[in-house]
Amino acid sequence: MYQIIYENQTLTMLPSTPFSLARSCACGQAFRFRSEGEGFFGVVNGRGVFLKQAGAGLSVYPCARHEIEGLVRYFDMERDYGAIESQIMADERLKACLPCASGIRIFQQDPFETLISFILSANNNVKRIQKTVAALCDATGEAVTDDVYSYRRFPAPKALSLLREDELRALGAGYRAPFIRKSAQMVADGYDLEALRRLPLALARKALCAFPGVGEKVADCVLLFSLSHTDAFPMDVWMKRAVRELIFGGTEPGKARIASEIGKLGPASGIVQQYVFHYARENGIGVRT
DNA sequence: ACCCAGGGTGACG
DNA sequence: CGTCACCATGGG
Question: What is the per-residue burial (b if ≥16 Cβ within 10 Å, else e) of A223-232?
Answer without folding.
Answer: bbbbbbbbbb
